[in-house]
Amino acid sequence: MAKAVADVTSDNQGGYASNGSPVTGFSHMHDSGTGGASSLANFPIFAYPGCKDDEVNGCVFPKTKRSVQVVDGSVSARPGYFTIDLQSGIRAEITAANHTALYQFTFFGNATGNATVDAPLSPLFIVDLTDLPDTRQNGSASVRKDNGRMSGSGTFQPSFGTGSYNLHYCADFPAGNSIRETGVFTNTRADSEPTSIVVGKDNNSPPLPAGTYVRFNEVEPGSTITIRVGLSFKSVDQACKNAETEIPDFDFSKTLATAEEIWKDKLAVLSVDATGFEDTSMQTIFWSGVYRAMLSPQDYTGENYLWESDEPYYDSYYCIWDSFRSIHPFITLVDPYSQTLMIRSLIDIYRHEGWLPDCRMSLSKGWTQGGSNADIVLVDAYLKNITQDVDWETGYEALIKDAEDEPPVWDYEGRGGLYSWKKYGYIPADDYDPYGTGLFTRSISRTVEYAYNDFCISEMSKALGKQDDYEKYTERSGNWINLYKADQKSDIKGVDTGFTGFLQPKYLNGTWGYQDPTLCSSVMEFDSCYLNPGGHETYEGSPWLYTFFAPHDMAALITTLGGPETFVSRLDYLHESGILYVGDEQAFLTIFQYHYAGRPGKSVERVHYYIPSQFNTTTAGIPGNDDSGAMGSFVALAMMGIFPNPGQDIYFITAPFFSSVSITNGMTGKTATIKTVNFDTAYKNIYIQSAKLDGEDYTKNYLTHSFFLNGGTLELTLGDKESTTWGTGEDDVPPSVSTSK
């Protein structure tokens, strides 16, 4: 729960960004790499080396004015640790436990920069009743004169959802520090009386600065002051208890060592052979992706004040529209125990909220972006043997409710337009829906996502022996084709793309509407398809992109688009024309769809284009934002050579970026190894020529999860030219629903 870091003034969705912007504080909770508004970062602390004229009101309190520049080259980070120097003469070092952040500040003097003062080195700390997106509705804070304990509470709004949430903190200093003064501040002024403050919602925007402070007597340059901040969604008392239990002795080195050991255990299930590389850039890209893919969802078990339950509670599903594609399949591979807890948590959310979430953060319902994509997460886990203590009967009940019942407001749960979905087999652009309300946009993307949601439900229906459900949802899964307009052409700035046939909006009466097939792509009005009333009929992508979204029936899609050769040419055009933006998660699957046309070598070409051109070790080395680890999990899976088709028991085989890769399953203890013959670090030999699975010839261009459950060895012989035999036959490509009946 505690993910502490420095907060900067721009691109600060995750708190810190390496963009040269100044620091406004150090806060304790963040969502990792989200888009849109900043998230969490509640109750930041800010440290001053001293105040002008040695008066408390010589310090600048509002975060809009107090920011301090970073010392160039001072930032360093690794799992469990972050450090940064400020031009005010302060070094901050940060580590954390589960619900507690631990900060160690070293004061070198009142240096040059924004906080220049002519005064003794008399450090002052504040805790500010704010968050990064400035959503505070109310707050309260108090400070104890005897030991400097600062504690408080606040009500805030989620960054991508509805409602509000309560959060509490408890900040302590170790005994022995010489306290000079304590008090409260509001707006630009502070005083030692009173010792508590309460603020409500008023007309100030952003909310009026307010909080508490502790000021210490003069210290020698190089002195260190430690502050521990416990957190809880339930109460101040629990926040204090969390801190006292997790970090009882304020020992920074010990806490850091514990955090590092936890991370080592998490990462130890993976190993790669990096022999022969001249530098570590590829390892950095890979391990950074693995690390980021493990940051969310977050374990808030014991902190959910909304209901009482013995089940685990995970939060920061931010959002499942992003995470179903690679984050959850990755966690299933490397940490199946945690994925099991997440599945149990999702089902428990359904029990108490009535619906599976499509997005959730800060104990609040998040906005739905397309389909009911928790359906995919549940089915993916079910197919991959995530079973320990999972109530799959209730899980299946939740899936059926998504498919059959429309909620009163489907902006944040379930699906909208279900009456039309069942009657017409698509979501009309002018839908008549008296059964629920939501944004009447995204008719194309919702249609194809609903189709895939229904396919995933059909897989579980089949496994459970529910034949009627299996047939119903298999039939509905074919609805993706109902918005395919066979004669629709496409051009880019007046130049014909040479391809005909794209998804298009359709009205209730069966006539066609129109959306330019390139609209909301990198070549035409990229930012035009978001969650707003004018957001068009696709979401964060163009009809060009969504026309490729039939993950369960690629055989039918390939036939619809003119056969394998034309399909490959169209897929090439998508990747080479500038239409595709790999920073949106829908792009991931298109990189590997060549497998279905019997051209796995083309998939590996695309992987090696995007890594490292778009994914690299520079500060711009993630396209867009990380979306809670989506980009990280894409990199990790792609570099291991085993990208999933989420919601199905399919992993596309491509050549790994290392000579061998091993994954140890945390539930079975078995190790699956992918090793190569003729591997070269210059990546000339990227094409698979032949494969052996546990010593036997293997011609399929995909794996199933049994390989990772049972362990074994996949040996890939590589060459510098695309093979015309391996993985190319009709029996070698992944299955499609229309060819598997």
Strand content: 15-25%
Largest sheet: 9 strands, antiparallel
The total strand number stands at 31
Strand order of the largest sheet: 4-5-6-7-16-11-10-9-14
pLDDT below 50 for ≥5 consecutive residues: which ranges?
111-115
Alpha carbon gap, first and last residue: 45 Å
Shape: globular
Number of helices: 18
Let me know the average pLDDT: 96
Quaternary: single chain
Q: What class do helices, strands and sheet pairing give?
A: alpha+beta
What's the helical proportion of residues? 25-40%
What is the CA-based Rg, rounded?
27 Å
Written description of the protein model:
With 741 residues, the chain is an alpha+beta fold. It is built from 18 helices and 31 strands. The protein has a nine-stranded antiparallel β-sheet. Strands 17-26-27-31-28-29 form a six-stranded mixed β-sheet. A five-stranded antiparallel β-sheet has the order 3-8-15-12-13, with no helix packed on it. Strand 26 and strand 27 (671-677) form a beta hairpin. Helix 3 (281-293) packs across helix 17 (630-640), helix 7 packs antiparallel against helix 8 (392-404) and helix 10 (443-463) packs antiparallel against helix 11. The two termini are 45 Å apart. Residues 111-115 have low confidence and may be disordered.
